[in-house]
Amino acid sequence: MAAMEIEFTAPYDIDQVLTFSLPDKSVRGRVARLGPVLGDILQAHDYPPVIRLLLSEALVITTLMGSLIQKSSGQLTIQVQSTSGAVELLVCDFLESRVRGYVQFRDDVVLQQDRLPDFGRLFGDGRLVVTFDMAASKERYQGLVELRGSSLTQVVRQYFIQSEQIPTVLQTAIDLDGPEPTAAGMLLQYLPDGEEGRTRLDTLDSDFGWACVAQLAETTADRDDALLAEPGLRSTLRRLFPEEDTVMVHGTEMLAKGCRCSLEHYDSILSRFSKEDRREMQNEDGVILVDCAFCARQFAIQD
Ligand SMILES: [Zn+2]
Fold it and tell me: How close is the Cα of 231 to the center of ligand 1, in Å?
């Protein structure tokens, strides 16, 4: 019998976000990669190519930003609203490692392209709204930024600089042509006073250090490949920061698709309406039809 050749391959990290820091540079970071979760979300809709690309980018950004919130302490929502342009509304949210999103758009030939078109054409006049809903305090923090730049990634970077005054690098890489759609990204933030506002003693050279890290993160030639194709997210970090002596990995979170729609959920929402209001919502068969925009499912509720 011929000897069999067994090929050992490292497992491919997918639907995960990894939290890390570069302590020498006062940098905290996240790398995230979405695969089956992204496929599930896209599959529920019959989106044109440009909308698939845009939503993939938005979902990976939402994952990176949402993972900045401590688990079970709140929800992050990003919403793009525009009054002109091809995209009308884009909503994504992240709650307890679960992500979801959808897009409403106007008919436009630009949506059939393979690449994201000019930002003005896509959104016209629009803005990005970032909302943090904190569970414990029930407080809501909201930041707004104009949709200027060449990508959603750039707009969100601008949001961090304007609204939170945190120097931020955000990079995303999308591959929807492979056997499975994949979206990956990296978020780096410079926090010389530490996450909790602690004063750190080792910030003497860190402004220069941050500038170097940011420059490297933005210019690494094979960055997209490191984000999308490197099997393990830890080895992605090694490829992205080869010069760093210490890259501290704090943990990984498994990601899931976050739709919360169910008959029970809509039942409880409808029960808050008066009997008269509910009667007005019924169709001729006495059934209330409710659509979930996130997963394009329809629920028929017998009142
Ligand atoms: Zn749903």
Answer: 31
Cα 95 to middle of ligand 1, angstroms: 14
Indicate the DSSP class of residue 3. Answer: P
**Chunked mean pLDDT (size 10), the chain, 303 residues:** 60 95 92 97 94 97 94 90 90 95 90 83 90 88 89 91 88 94 96 58 63 84 93 94 92 92 86 91 90 89 80
What is the number of structural domains in the chain? 2
Q: Say how far apart CA 27 and CA 83 lie, in whole Å.
A: 37
Residues 96 and 244 grouped into a single domain: yes
CA-to-CA separations, 175 to 31, 37, 80, 182, in angstroms, rounded:
16, 14, 22, 5
Distance 15 CA to ligand 1 centre (A): 19
2 C-alpha vs ligand 1 centroid, how far in Å? 52
User: Does 76 reside within a domain?
Assistant: yes
Q: How far is the CA of 269 from the centre of ligand 1 (A)?
A: 14
* Dist. CA 175–CA 258, nearest whole Å: 22
pTM: 0.89
Give me ligand 1 centre to Cα 150, in Å. Answer: 31
Domain encompassing residue 91:
16-257
Whether residue 253 lies inside any domain: the answer is yes
